[in-house]
Design brief:
This protein has 74 residues and is an alpha+beta fold. It contains two helices and two strands, in the order H-H-E-E. It has one domain. Strands 1-2 form a two-stranded parallel ribbon. The longest helix has 7 residues.
Length: 74
């Protein structure tokens, strides 16, 4: 299963690198589309998109919705 970094950047490197944030040199498809005037929206129940520590995947989208209650979020 590709990691979320693989899905955002289009570079499949999960076999060579573990889970992690987007790197400064990664181009996120959502951010590229947003810059071109395309409205992007993320809907997820995946808490890791929002955690502190540099992940910040949700900031690449024009807007986002978080559906609570997964993992350790009661």
């Amino acid at each position: 299963m590709p990691a979320r970094r693989d899905l955002h950047s289009g570079r499949l490197n999960f076999m060579h690198r573990s889970w992690g944030p987007l790197e400064p040199y990664d181009n996120s498809f959502a951010q590229i589309m947003k810059r071109k005037g395309v409205y992007t929206h993320l809907i997820t129940d995946h808490l890791h998109y929002f955690e502190d520590g540099g992940h910040g995947f949700h900031t690449k989208f024009s807007s986002y919705d978080y559906i609570r209650g997964q993992e350790y979020d009661p």
